Amino acid sequence: MVKKSIHEINGRIRDGSVNVVTAEEMVDIVGELGAEGAAKEVDVVTTGTFGAMCSSGVWLNFGHSEPPIRIGKLWLNDVEAYSGVAAVDAYIGATQQSQSKGIEYGGAHVIEDLIRGNSIDLHGTSPGTDCYPRKVIDTTINIYDLNQAIMLNPRNSYQKYNAATNSTNHTLHTYMGSLLPHHGNVTYSGAGVLSPMHNDPNYETIGTGTRIFLGGTQGYIVGEGTQHSPAAGFGTLMLKGDLKNMSSEYIRAATFEGYGTSLYVGMGIPIPILNEDLAKATAITDDDIVTNLLDYGIPSRDRPVLRTVTYGELRSGSIDINGKEVPTSPMSSFKKSRQIANELKDWIKAGEFFVSMPVERLPTTTPCNAMKQSNVDLLVVDIMSSDVTTIHEDAGFHDAAKIIMEKQFNHLPVVDSGNHLVGIVTAWDISKAVAKDEHDLVKDIMTRKVVTTCPDEAVDISAFKLDSNNVSALPVIDSNKHVVGIVTSDDISKLLARRH
Question: Where is 359: in which H helix or E strand?
Fold first, then answer.
């Protein structure tokens, strides 16, 4: 049985005899030599990942002004930072959006601008106190003006990430990118074979105090990240590092269309090969890593798993969903992940980076519970109108006009011969048809791309659908696409009025 110590490995780093390989290279070495042989030959395996990590941010200390101020509210380039600690400390979160530019610029962009040495407009306000009499501060700063700029990311480097697709009839804009309708694409995140936590799944060398690569400089693992759930394969890490030494090569701001801002973070962990078990663990391949493909078209915390899929399949460029070949695309950069693993390897070989053991192991049984909600959310079935009239798609639009006038409503769901929803017509559609005098049938003037809801959907989700799709009514359908009701923006407005 091979046994090595951190002291021995660091001695080899110091005298230049250390053997370092990337996790990608380790696969073939273990395949050729076996776990025992690889453990004898290899001292350190480097990993790397570069992807969007929303749960990131930076602690900043600005120093005291003259006269001094205890900042209560703070904006950096019009992005609000949390300043509810001490007088001149603040935390800028990556996903906080600009008050004037919206999702086009956010906390992630402030962080990247700081790294690049760009000037940042600071605006702070305070109620004023005897010891901090100033009430307003406006100034311009850059990273060199700050006493500290400490990146502290609550949740980075997910052990694995679910892949995403979309079963609805419209495009979804999510943190997994734009998901095309009818399973038009699949997106995924993670570095697969180079993924840091997959190369030490038992957290033997990854834990509190472990020295890592973060943003192009040396950083540390603070401990388990938020939502750390290792039993489910979703371990996470909380990381820290000095922003002043980071590079925009490895820390990049991003805007996801229709979603918001995020921060691409580059990080890598060296795995010291202390024994055969670690050598075997670092030989994991893309085909060994399995994740779930979720349907993001279901607006729920518990999205259905359509199938399991390996990273090998995802990285091949397409996968099968119900007999349909669907293109896949990564949300993270494998090229950059490989670059990080190689740069970390070079640092170690040059004697510029020494490996370390954690001062405390990460927990392995921590659950990730859902939010406790003390109020019961209303469902669509609680507010929808069940007295809904439909019309056949082959009916004349004059018949539709007659129904709308008699029933005194504006939305008429359209069904086929099997009573399945196939469209919707409104009073406005009929007015246009009359004015143009071009069509006679309902199916010629109806909207076919119908946004729908179902009886057991939360009212809040229906309200979001109405708002984001700029429509004023949603047909309520059952699992057979039969219309069982309708909910309108008026129904939602009345509910909100009662709530307030």
Answer: none
pLDDT in tens, 383-402: 898 988 999 999 988 888 88
Domain count, the chain: 3
Report helix angle 427-436 to 397-407, nearest 10: 140
Nearest to 91 by CA among 78, 66, 74, 114: 74
Do residue 73 and residue 39 come from a single domain? no
Catalytic residue from among 54, 131, 368, 454: 131
* Within-domain flag for 258: yes
Contact 251, 263 (CB under 8 A): yes
**Domain at 435, CATH number:** 3.10.580.10
Tokens at 195, concatenated: 């993924």
**Is 74 among the domain residues?**
yes
In a domain, 372, yes or no: no
Q: Which of 209, 177, 485, 172 is nearest to 331 (CA)?
A: 177
What's the whole-model pTM score? 0.87
Cβ atoms 248, 112 nearer than 8 A: yes
- What pLDDT was estimated at residue 387? 87
Taking 70 as the pLDDT cut, the residues of the chain under it are: 495-500
Question: Is 131 part of the annotated catalytic residue set?
Answer: yes
